[in-house]
Amino acid sequence: MKASADYHTVARALRYLDENYLDQPSLDELAEALGLSKFHLQRLFTRWAGVSPKRFLQFLTLDHAKRLLLDSEPVLATAFASGLSGPARLHDLFINTEGVTPGEYKSGGFSLSIGYGFHATPFGEALLATTERGLCHLSFLAGDAPGDREAYLGVLEEEWPGATLSEASKPTAELARAIFYPGDGSLPKAPLSVFLKGTNYQLKVWNALLRIPAGSVTTYGRLAGAMGSPGSARAVGTAVGRNAVAYLIPCHRVIREMGGFGQYRWGSVRKSAMLAWESAQKATRQAS
Length: 288
Fold this sequence. Notes:
CATH class of the largest domain: Mainly Alpha
Number of helices: 12
Order of helices and strands: HHHHHEEHEEEHEHEHEHHEH
Number of strands: 9
CATH architecture of the largest domain: Orthogonal Bundle
Low-confidence stretches: 84-92
Distance between the termini: 25 Å
Helix content: 40-55%
CATH topology of the largest domain: Arc Repressor Mutant, subunit A
């Protein structure tokens, strides 16, 4: 899909801006650094993010991240006070989560069949894997080299060492459309199921992440406090980092206390892009 190809150019722009932020480069300077015309860059950003490059870059600043934390606080307080543990809403998508049984966890997925596929998304190519009980893996590839896919399949095999893996591009393509392109009529009629492998504590943290709406963020400390464990920010951070279902379980919406976007399992540039993209989508919805 076109948005996936656009992301690679956007990622190059984000890296350049991250390295030259103090100089506040103009659109002309950014376009020259990328080897593009400023008109093409303007169109590409607008097509991908729904806003102009100048507006999009405002969503990447530390000041915006700090304001986002302040604005998100009452939203998250309401979400956690409701007592919902799932299903939760991601845009217009309902999600049900189910954890593995103790026996399945111990065996690593023995006798479990997992179908996988590689698909284009607005944030680059992704590997999706699913079982009859739901989506069990979603990760973003770091590059485009032929060996990258084999490396990511190796990670999936390590996560589920007792499972049987086979290519299943059709069902995983349907999942990718529902997750990343819900506006094209691909929303499932039933809630989307996610099948998670983790400890009880990790499952608790991942379900808590589902309560963070698109366009909102929180910190590790605030997430721990909302879960009733205010002194467990480090443990929450570790559990967040173990999330194997990127984007759908939105660990990218947890940022540093001072507003910095911080690191991300699938790349800090991708995390910045996701947060800025979600802010842009939210601003567009509010303006319409």
